[in-house]
UniProtKB/TrEMBL annotation:
Topology of the protein relative to the lipid bilayer: Multi-pass membrane protein
Swiss-Prot/TrEMBL keywords: Cell membrane, Membrane, Transmembrane, Transmembrane helix, Transport
Family as reported in the entry's similarity comment: Belongs to the ABC-4 integral membrane protein family.
Record organism: Dorea acetigenes
Primary site of residence: membrane
Subcellular location: Cell membrane
Listed name of the protein: ABC transporter permease
Pfam family, one: FtsX
Transmembrane segments annotated in the record for this chain: 21-38, 58-78, 99-132, 152-176, 197-214, 226-250, 280-305, 535-560, 594-616, 628-649
Highest rank taxon of the organism: Bacteria
Length: 662
């Protein structure tokens, strides 16, 4: 056959199937565009903030995985709808080799249009996305706009490979199918689906495990460990229950004769059994994508909106100075620097806390604490263990406690009290003279990854003994031992004065303490604001960006589902009318089926996010957001907006559905 014939056939086929090809090409163009934009942003060499670059790189990898899965999924729908047409070509004498050439030309055309248009739009909109990112970040991250030739090459290679893989898949489908199977096309499997009880039970078990983990997780560190396991269980359970559980439930309803043998139930149950068989995977995909959109947008928006809460949680005071391995001379020098800078800039120190502290980790077993290296968080019962002098405690809390050598005061950052009369630290036992319900040094803290215990001693001798014991068993280098296992001096305070004067004093103190005082750390809430906006602003940008990408996929899957059901229900309309149902009854029956099936993924997605709410609040606490009402408000607002958009999409795609069946 002449090659021009294949081109004309491919062109005619795409024109005749425009209802399925145009949305596919349009979404492919958007996917190419969004990958190029993200790749060019992530590889921008002028980005100075590591957090920004890291988050953009992760987002780029997510888009790669998404592009492969999404384009394969939509391509499988296309080839399914085309099988009958291809079967006709085969029956009329067109060999599979010729059909393969025709499909190859169609794929090449689709790939060229998608990649070319996607890159053109990517270049056109990349500056807009760059400006949006900078606007969200609020601070100068040293990022300049550039059109990346390397990103273009990577985009060409990636989507060239994806389209080549989809072509190979299509050719394999045609090669393995016989003409009769091709003619049956998308009508294969019209037999009643079997009840898969094993898969149904697996879905219930997987979903139950995921929900149990989400509902019983109490600490942030447990949330970090268990969250991804819970996500995997919920995803697997969702797919299993949509594929097998829905059919099992419908068949159980059909066995209930009192319920089933009613006009509205009879047709609805029968129709939905076939509907769920054909669309279960698509509905599960919609549910998972909807859940991802809701979680990403609600969490990132709440983090960004709650930035001030985050900063105040992370930095209770505007300035915090820590001197490791402290001594009286360095402490006096720090005090001189602070006084000089505050007096020079005419600002006052307010709400200050000054104390000495030793910080270790410990494994807690009942009332027994086994001291370990700092940062040893591999054990389930690990906690942070702080030791403070009585005189510092009395000064901070305006108390006059006088402890005996074998007595201590105990305070825990958890809501629950320690509630014991004694405490054992390694091989030493102390009587708890008093347990504090609150402490200025650290209020009850929901943002902690692990529990924190503060123990106040009468003098420094036992503290130094514990530090020496841990140091001897530590694997750290000697210089780090001397730094880590020694008393620290901490001084935190706020500044009162004009904003520019406070900023000048802050910058002056930072420069001098950093240069003049060795082995010290200077932290400022205001000077850390930029890095927090860089981190949480990047998360917001990626959350909205990926949310839009997943939303686009959801819309396309919904559209294809409506098209597919339209062609399938066209015959059902005719059959139901032939057995005596009026057109109004038929329309009412199918409409109820569509509404039930269509909104089922949204309902399940809302249930998913409701169950996950608790564990997500624990994860947000790790990022210093402990304002649960704010996260709840953002979540509700996100769900409402998404539900409205979901309903609009249903209304638009339903019109196409009714146009097909009528």
């Amino acid at each position: 056959m002449n090659s021009s014939i294949y081109i004309r056939l491919a062109s005619a086929n795409m024109k005749n199937n425009w209802k399925t090809y145009i949305p596919y090409i349009f979404t492919a163009i958007l996917t190419v565009m969004m990958y190029y934009i993200m790749d060019s942003l992530s590889q921008n060499g002028s980005v100075k903030e590591e957090n920004v670059q890291l988050i953009l790189n992760y987002a780029c990898r997510i888009i790669v995985v998404f592009s492969v899965i999404f384009l394969f999924y939509t391509n499988s729908f296309l080839i399914k709808r085309r099988k009958k047409e291809i079967g006709v070509y085969n029956i009329l004498g067109m060999g599979k080799r010729h059909i393969a050439k025709m499909l190859t030309i169609e794929t090449i055309f689709t790939a060229i249009v998608s990649v070319a248009a996607g890159l053109a739009l990517g270049v056109a909109f990349s500056k807009l996305m760059w400006l949006v990112l900078l606007r969200i970040l609020h601070y100068d991250v040293g990022m300049n706009f550039e059109v990346s030739a390397a990103a273009m090459v990577r985009t060409l290679v990636l989507f060239g490979v994806i389209f080549a893989m989809t072509l190979c898949y299509n050719l394999l489908q045609i090669r393995l199918a016989n003409p009769v199977e091709l003619l049956r096309g998308s009508n294969q499997g019209e037999k009643e689906p079997k009840t898969k009880w094993v898969l149904t039970l697996f879905g219930i078990l997987a979903l139950g495990i995921g929900y149990y983990i989400a509902l019983t997780t109490e600490s942030p560190i447990a949330a970090l460990e268990a969250f991804f396991l819970a996500v995997i269980c919920v995803v697997l359970g969702t797919y299993a229950l949509f594929i097998a559980g829905s059919i099992a439930l419908l068949k159980m309803l059909r066995k209930n004769k009192k319920y089933y043998y009613k006009m509205k139930h009879f047709t609805a149950i029968s129709g939905m059994i076939y509907r769920m068989k054909q669309n279960a995977v698509g509905l599960a995909n919609i549910c998972i994508l909807s859940t991802m959109v809701l979680v990403m947008v609600s969490t990132t928006v709440s983090l960004y909106v709650g930035m001030e809460d985050v900063l105040k949680t992370r930095f209770p005071h505007e300035i915090a100075i820590t001197k490791y391995k402290t001594n009286a001379e360095d402490e006096e020098r720090i005090r001189e620097i602070v006084v000089e800078e505050t007096e020079k800039n005419e600002v006052e120190i307010t709400d200050e806390l000054e104390y000495h502290i030793a910080a270790l980790s410990a494994v807690k077993e009942g009332t027994h604490f086994f001291l370990t290296d700092q940062g040893s968080y591999g054990t389930k019962n690990v906690c942070e263990f702080y030791m403070i002098l009585q005189e510092d405690y009395n000064r901070m809390e305006s108390d006059d406690m006088s402890l005996a050598p074998d007595e201590v005061i105990v305070y825990t950052t958890e809501k629950a009290l320690y509630g014991k009369n004694t405490i054992q630290i390694d091989d030493q036992t102390y009587r708890v003279a008093k347990e504090l319900k609150s402490m200025k040094l650290e209020p009850k803290n929901a943002s902690r990854i692990v529990e924190g215990y503060y123990v106040i001693f009468a003098d420094e001798a036992p503290i130094q003994a514990f530090l020496q014991s841990v140091s001897e068993n530590s694997s750290l280098q000697e210089e780090w031992k001397q730094r880590s296992y020694a008393m620290q001096h901490k001084w935190s305070f706020d500044l009162k004065g004009k904003e520019k004067d406070c900023t000048a004093a802050t910058e002056g103190m930072q420069g001098r303490i950093t240069n003049e005082i060795g082995d010290s750390v200077y932290e400022s809430r205001e000077m850390s604001r930029g890095s927090f906006y860089s981190l949480y602003g990047s998360l917001l940008f990626i959350g909205i960006y990926l949310g839009f990408l997943f939303l686009m996929a959801t819309v396309l899957i919904i559209y294809y589902k409506q098209i597919s059901e339209g062609y399938d229900d066209k015959e059902r309309y005719q059959i139901m009318q032939k057995v005596g149902m009026s057109k109004r009854e038929v329309r009412s029956s199918i409409r109820s089926q569509i509404l039930t099936v269509f909104f089922l993924p949204l309902v399940v997605a809302i249930i998913h996010i409701a169950v996950a709410f608790k564990v997500i609040t624990k994860l947000l606490a790790v990022l210093n957001l402990v304002n649960v009402p704010l996260f709840l408000s953002c979540t509700i607002a996100t769900v409402v907006v998404f539900a409205i958009f979901y309903g609009i999409v249903f209304g638009m795609t339903a019109k196409e559905y009714y146009r097909i069946v009528n």
